[in-house]
Write a structure and sequence with these properties.
Chain B: GO terms for molecular function: branched-chain amino acid transmembrane transporter activity. The complex is a heterodimer of chains A (412) and B (341). Chain A has 412 residues and is of the alpha/beta class. Chain A is built from 14 helices and 15 strands. Classes of the chains: A alpha/beta (412), B mainly alpha (341). Chains A and B meet through α1, β2, α3, α4 and α6 of A and α2, α3, α8 and α13 of B.
């Protein structure tokens, strides 16, 4: 009986293998069946859901609607689809879904993809499938550095830009001595390095920089130590993000470090962080924001439309998704096709202004988007005139200073 | 009638093989490969939990160590990927020796906690050792080199990766049905008695731990090659937890159940990614609660009990059941007879 069962199994397997010629998933295939598909792959349930998530899908849909309205009958195609997937902040799911989006759902471009491990994995899929990937959510400079490729674009922000904007401006404004606390993983280490470089270049010194465990609830060790350092730091630079940032800021306020003459500068902050903490907890904090919804009337007009759809004001990630989708569609329009190689050519070196990006250029050498960014300060609650009105723009950092120069580490 | 036919082992085995080979036709191939790799991982955890009575909450250490080792071998030596996967599994086994040596003398919640602690140490090392592991960015761009064959198509790669999983499952099945497996189960049921009979309990447990780690490593290696990267997520405690969850859903101490649990969880994760629900965690949690409450012995365990009750057939003693069914002394007697003790 046993032998019979086994031979039956072997026979079945043999039959299956014989028919193995044209199974599904037979590679990239040809695109351009008259339709263009934009796929948003991001975190819709875990820690990045709020700052990007589902509302980024809405932003991309807005971009498509605006594009269709702008070109009407002259549009290269009227059949533009927006699809989305939730990678739950798991790189392996991001990787499988990216393949599926490119192969099965005929996605021509994947947008967003927060967190660097997921972004780098999707970049490799984009390279393998020769399809376009425009990353917004990840901060790592590897995307336009060693791990760059022809089909990957990095859009919006990165660790260098965050550090450079805040680090050098705050130092030049007179806060020369820094104490840096950073979460001890790749993002924090990169931020620490970039901040230190930016501060020193601007003539300041880093008195001390301490790694903190990640994730971490209790920052009292670092906060108690800060006033006693020699020389005494004038500003505490924190590279924490998300929940860690919230904890650190609360404790910074409890220890009343601001009254002791130590200002707070934050490496990466989203408007959603301010919204959840309340502006008073963060009042006076300086940070670099790639985009603020209430900075210009143009931004505000777009933010009003966004709010009508989602009930919230947009974070910079939402605006960047809108912009990336718009620029992709414009490139398709210019190229007259959604063939990836032609669209890459149309995107490379393209200079433009849109609601997200001022004086923008997609750098041809490494596919990094350069644009003006803002140095912002959180308003105290007394100055907040309406919900989400949290930021005062101190200064605009011009595009050519905001991002790192192309260092040649990227070979497309 | 059909049930009785299905309950026969050769029929079941043939059916399972057909499903295993047909899987990439039925679902998206990379997901099929994920199911296979996770199935092996869950079986490795079940080997320890269901047959050794040891709940490891740190198996991600072995899965992840192998994923990284496999990746590093494939990236830096250019050796064919099967060599890399075997290397990864070996690395996991080697790592399991000291960890197992220090933890198998504990049991219950203490064992779970100690294995979790070791796994977190591995996580920390992987996170910090950026020059080698890439830290949070992960180890990216792992090639699938096999003597110049183009395996970039996930559909084809499934058939290249499946043999590793099948071999791993076969090994697990052999371990459970060997005299060693019998001793392991009797230790699970009554450690003092096994010790009194002269069995070195800790050594048996250690060997089971190392074997389980090697199997988890085999799965982790396939996973890394399949995805083309290894990430911190692979060594994180949620990965250990997910494997335990698969075993509990499918049925502890059944092996088949672990495979079923893996298929269920991986497809659920995949489905929820595009289903458009906001709170995937709540849905996964609900399903877990429902299954644990309704099917006390997991999906497979309950199904097996049902078919056994219907057909009124008694199961052969060599097939392991949850602790209550066969007494440990019976098992040891059988082993003693077989091994001529």
């Amino acid at each position: 009986m046993k032998a019979l069962g086994l031979s039956a199994a072997v026979a079945t397997v043999g039959a299956l293998l014989a028919g193995c010629g044209g199974g599904p998933g037979g590679g990239g295939g040809k695109i351009s069946d008259g339709s263009v598909t934009l796929a948003v792959l991001n975190d819709q349930t875990a820690i990045y859901a709020d700052l990007s998530g589902k509302n980024s899908v809405e932003a991309v849909k807005m971009a498509v609607a605006d594009f269709t309205a702008r070109y009407g009958d002259k549009a290269v195609t009227k059949d533009i689809k927006v699809i989305s997937a939730d990678h739950q902040n798991k790189p392996d799911i991001a990787n499988s879904k990216a393949q599926e989006l490119y192969d099965r759902q005929r996605a021509d471009v994947i947008l967003d993809v927060p967190s660097s491990a997921a972004a780098l994995a999707v970049a490799n899929q984009a390279k393998a499938k020769k399809k376009i990937f425009m990353d917004i959510g990840a901060a790592t400079t590897e995307l336009e550095g060693k791990q760059c490729n022809k089909y990957t674009f990095h859009y919006g922000y990165n660790t260098y830009m965050l550090a450079n904007g805040t680090g050098s401006t705050v130092t030049k404004d007179g806060s020369k001595q820094w104490y840096i606390v950073y979460p001890d993983y790749a993002f924090g280490q990169d931020m620490n390095k970039s901040f230190t470089a930016a501060i020193q270049k601007a003539g300041g010194t880093v008195v001390k920089s301490d790694p903190a465990p990640f994730p971490n609830d209790n920052f009292s060790t670092f906060l108690l130590k800060a006033p006693g350092l020699n020389p005494k730091p004038q500003v505490l630079g924190t590279m924490q993000a998300g929940g860690d940032l919230v904890n650190l800021v609360k404790q910074y306020n409890e220890y009343k470090l601001q009254d002791k003459g130590i200002d707070l500068a934050v490496g990466l902050m989203f408007i959603t962080d301010i919204h959840s903490l309340g502006p008073d907890a963060l009042a006076g904090t300086k940070f670099t924001d790639p985009w603020y919804w209430n900075a210009t009337p143009q931004n505000r007009a777009w933010a009003d439309k966004f709010m009508a759809k989602t009930g919230k004001r947009p974070s910079f990630a939402h605006a960047a998704n809108y912009s990336a989708a718009t620029q992709y569609l414009e490139a398709v329009q210019r190229a007259g096709t959604d063939n990836s190689d032609d669209v890459v050519k149309a995107l490379e070196g393209h200079k433009f202004n849109d609601v997200f990006a001022d004086n923008a250029e997609i750098r041809a050498q490494d596919h990094l988007l350069l644009h003006d960014v803002e140095l912002a300060q959180v308003k105290p609650a007394a100055e907040v005139k309406e919900p989400w009105d949290y930021e005062k723009i101190l200064k605009t950092v011009p595009a050519n200073e905001a991002f790192q120069p192309a260092d040649g580490s990227c070979r497309l | 009638m059909i049930l009785r036919l299905l309950a026969r082992r050769p029929v079941l085995l043939a059916l399972a093989l057909v499903v295993a080979f047909a899987l990439p036709w039925l679902i998206y191939p990379p997901v099929a490969m994920d199911i296979a790799a996770w199935a092996l991982f869950a079986v490795a955890v079940d080997l320890l939990l269901g047959y050794g009575g040891l709940l490891s909450f740190g198996h991600a250490a072995f899965w992840g160590t192998s994923a990284y080792t496999t990746g590093l071998i494939a990236l830096h030596t250019g050796l064919p990927f099967p060599v890399a996967i075997v290397g990864g599994a070996l690395a996991a086994a080697v790592l399991a020796v000291p960890i197992g040596y220090l933890s198998v003398r504990l049991s219950g919640i203490y064992f779970a906690m100690v294995t979790l602690a070791f796994a977190q140490m591995i996580y920390f090392i992987v996170n910090q050792w950026r020059d080698v592991t890439g830290g949070e960015n992960g180890l990216q761009g792992i090639p699938r080199e096999l003597f110049g064959l183009d395996l970039s198509d996930p559909f084809l790669f499934y058939y290249a990766g499946l043999p590793f999983v099948l071999v791993g499952l076969l090994v697990a099945w052999r371990i459970v049905r060997s005299p060693f497996g019998q001793v392991l189960m009797s230790i699970r049921d009554n450690p003092s008695r096994a010790r009194a009979l002269g069995y070195p309990v800790d050594r048996y447990r250690l060997l089971a731990f190392v074997l389980s780690a090697a199997l988890a490593g085999l799965g982790g290696g396939v996973f890394a090659i399949s995805h083309g990267f290894a990430s911190l997520h692979d060594v994180y405690w949620t990965t250990s937890g997910q494997a335990v969850m698969m075993v509990v859903l499918g049925g502890i101490g059944t092996l088949w159940g672990a495979v079923l649990g893996a298929a269920l969880i991986v497809s659920l994760n995949d489905y929820l990614a595009t289903a458009g629900f906001e709170e995937t965690g709540i849905i996964t949690g609900l399903i877990f609660v429902v299954i644990v409450l309704l099917f006390r012995k997991g999906l497979w365990g309950t199904a097996r009990d049902l078919t056994a009750a219907r057909s009124g057939r008694h199961r052969p003693a060599a097939v392991p059941d949850p602790p209550s069914s066969a007494s440990s002394s019976e098992r040891l007697d059988q082993v003693a007879e077989r091994s001529g003790r």
